[in-house]
Structure formats: structure tokens, C-alpha cells
Amino acid sequence: MKIATYNVNGVNGRLPVLLRWLAEAQPDVVCLQELKAPQEKFPEEALLQAGYNAIWHGQKSWNGVAILTRRHEIKEIRRVLPGDPEDEHSRYIEAIVNNVVIGCLYLPNGNPAPGPKFDYKLAWFKRFTLHAAELMAKGLPVVLTGDYNVMPTEIDVYKPERWVEDALFRPETRAAFKTLVDQGWTDAIRKLYPTETIYTFWDYFRNAYGRNAGLRIDHFLLSPQIEGRLQAAGVDRHVRGWEKSSDHAPVWIQLAEA
Fold first, then answer.
1. Residue 148 appears among annotated catalytic residues
2. CATH code of the domain in which 170 resides
């Protein structure tokens, strides 16, 4: 089973790129972030014609997450991260696909830091960590994937010295990610490529993609019950170079069937 995550940076504006990549890569499950579309504007029909069913949680102009499947039924579990009934951001959706719990997340950016947006990022991270612990305690095969807006270590960022005050790289953010992973999750990319330079995001400015001045902020965390099924993982880096592409590239893993 091939599972991918892709921050599309506007699902309707980037729809030709998304459909082109789906036809090329043919993932079985796709987690999308940053739809930037209200619920009724999600391009369900175009995706159905491409062979994908979908569940989604939209939001006008901002955020938004979705899970697509090519061959499997999607059984939705939740579309809100527990812990804050007043949080209206569309940043989390969770479903069972092929007997695997898939959590699709778009963690807050948090800039400028320090400040209210950074406080919200850390509070959201804490809620997510508590929910991840509950999933871990159930002993199920779980994949938590999406745009975490975190560079966990210095090898995950081009010129880390330039990012020390950024919300994606501040010590508090990296510590929160470590606390999450230390519950027993496996960072799929780093399991297979422990020391390689791998990026998933390149800014639109200063020819960042051409210079490979990137960040690794899109991650797959696997529970112990599924970590042993990991066969391959990678980044479809070339997609970032397509015309009118997102500033993220799709990231994927391949799991052996149970």
C-alpha cells in the first residue's frame, strides 16, 4: 500500500498539478493539506474521475485537510483534533483505510515567534501529542502524516543557523516533536535514510528550489504495529519543479500488505 502526503497550497488552483501527479504516482492513499477551499468547493468530481474517493474538512481561504483513496473504502473517525472545542481551524482528519488508522494533519506554522501564533502552535502540538498517545495506547497500526511545520534536526534544514528564531525550528518546537516521537513513533524517512539530505519544501523566493535550499517539514510517523511493514519511502521532488506547483513536494511511503 502506497501512502502519500502532499501540501497542495490551494487544491483548486493547483488541481492540474495534483491530477497530473496522481496519474503518474498512483498512490493508494493520499493525505492533502492546505486545501484553502470551503467544504462545498472541494473538487470531488474531478478526483472521482481520476479514480479517487475522498473525505475532507474545508475552510474558506485557509487550512483544510483531506484523505483520498484509490482502491479502498474510507471509514471516517474524526475531522477535529480533540481538546479545544473553540478551535475552528480545519487542521486534522482521521480515518480507517485498509485496516490502518490514517491521521492527516496540518500543524500550525507559528510565525511570528514568540507571539500568539506561536503559542497556538505549541498548544495545538500538545493536543496532537495527547491524541497520538491515545492512538498509541490502542495498539493499532497507525500512520500520522502531513505538514508538521517542524524541522526536527539540523540536517532537515538548509543553513540551520538562519532558522534558529523561526517557529519551525525554535527549540520549543523541536522539543515538542521529540516528545511526540518518543512515545514510540518511527519517523519513516529517517528510518530508511538516517543521514541523507532530504527536503520536502522549497520557498518560492530566491530560487530556493534551483539551489536546493529546502526544509524537511512533511513527515510520516508510524506506530510499532505498522513500522515493520515499511518497505520504501521518498519525495517526488521533481513535482516541485512543475509549472504552478505547490511549494511542497509529495512525500510517500510503501507498506507491505498485512
1. no
2. 3.60.10.10
